[in-house]
Each structure stands twice: as C-alpha cells, then as structure tokens.
Amino acid sequence: MSGFRGKFSLLVLQNAPLLLFAVLVIVFGLMSDRFLTPINFVNIVNQASHIAIIAIGMTFVLLIAGIDLSVGANMYLSAAILGVFLVGMPPLVAFPVVALLGLAFGAVNAFMITQLRVAAFITTLATLFIGRGIALYFSGNKMVPFSKSVLAFGRATYLGVPSAIWVFAIVLIIALVVLKLTTFGRQVYAIGADPDAAAKAGINVKRVVFTVYCICGVCAAVGGLVSGSQVAVASSTFGFQKEFPVIAAAVLGGTSLFGGRGGVLGTVFGAVLIQTVENGLVMTNANPYIYPLVISVIIFIAVFTDSSRTTVLERLERRKIRVEPD
If pLDDT is split at 50, 70 and 90, which confidence band does 1 have? Predict the structure, then answer.
C-alpha cells in the first residue's frame, strides 16, 4: 500500500502543473466571459512566446544542473544594441547579428564556468549586472525605440499566426531535435544525472557545458528580439528579473533543478501557464500590485513540486533495491 501511495504521489506531482492550469482556466473563465475565447488563447501564447524561447535555453542549462541568472540582462543588452547600433538594417541582417551577440554573451558565461571554474551562480550573477550596466551605457539610460521594420515584424502574421509564435515554434522544434535525436542531447542528460560518470564514459563535459550556456545565450537574445518587437521600445527595466519566470516555467514543466530530468515541451507548457495567470489577472481587473505576489507563489509551487518530486523518486528507487541473501 505504501508503494501505491508513493506512485500516486509521484503521479500527482508530475501532473501538478496540468491540474493548476485546469483550475486557473475554470476560475478565470467563470470570472470573465472574455477569457475563454480563441482570440484570447492565441494572445496568451503570443505573449508567452519570448518567455518560452528563453526558458527553452534555460532548460538546457538546468538539465546539466546549472543556472543562468543573466538571461534578462542578455535580453536588454541585445535589445539596446538592436535599437542603438543596428537601426536601418533589415531584420534578416540585424536579427542574426543580435543572435550572435547573445551567443557571445553566453560564451563569456561558459568560459568563466568551464575554464576559470567559477560557480555558475556567481558567474551569471556577475554578468547580470555587467550586461545590464553595458546596456544602460549604450542606451544612455533612456528608452530605446526600435525601427519600423522591427515593429512590422512584431505585428506581422503568417497564415493567421503571429510572427512571435512562429519564431517560438522554430526554436522549440530545433530544441526537441537536439535533445531527443542527437548524441549531444543524450550527453546533456548524462552530465545532469552524473557528471563524473559521464566523464568516465568519455564525454567531454567541459565542451558540452560550454555549448549549453551558448545555447542559453542565443535563446535569451532571440527572446529579447521577440519581446522588443512587441513592445516597441526597450526601457531601463526591459528584461528586468525575467530570469525568475523563465526558471519557474522550466521547473513547472518538469525540469529538475538538480539536473538530468525534464524537457522543452514541459517548459513551453510552464511558460503558457505563467502567462495564463497574468492574462487572467488582467481580464478580471485584479489589482496590479498583486501580480508579483501571484508570480512569487507560482515560483514557490514550482520549486516545492520539484523538490517533492525528487524526494518521491529517490524513495521509490530505494525500494527497488533488494538485498541479496548470502
């Protein structure tokens, strides 16, 4: 019976985000007749796209039991460079340049973590302030407007689907292929499960970790592009504290903070869930001052669920062990 309770607890914990999402949809649907409409659901996904893109990159980092607190600063720096130095360039030229800058940002984190052996938490906390400081210097601490071509991209639709959703879908497909169908993806999971065992198996741990932080940097820059094209300007608060909902989205989707477990599909669901909360609060005319409180509760639920899920899994694994008789 105790084994059944453990499996049932694990089932509930694994599906906690889905249960929470169902409750939120029902509650907000009863409170606002505008919430349960196809247009609103498309709007939720559209607004969640930049969070989902960055969270996909964060998923790679969390899978190796790492952390990147600098994604918001990367967003802001990318947007500032786009608005200050790449004005007049067509999106087909400007966007790849910004993505490469995001790659460089991630490579700085990766170099300090893999070569200088500075803890990921300290490294990315430092680059958070450095990146935001550089962006403030470039922008003169003023709002940076984007060009008409960038705004046109943000407002464009293809086959009736907003451009942000298309970008998010492309990033998602690439991430799925990399994690599920490539050797590199298997190595990411192996390192997250046991880096020492992975190294003994012949995996170049430093190279994989380096690549993972570069992927996160690119995703942060692309997320900044998508968000910037939607809001038209980048103020000094652009991307501020975005790392928290991004991490929450990944953990809510089942990615463990301890590495080795999770995936990008769950991360996308977590991002949509967080945006559903924000959208529902707006639809029900809730007090804006409670928004941070609600998001904080969601982050707590995500961390608590992950910790509880890990504990239950460890308990179940111990029960599988049988002592052989002498």
Answer: very low
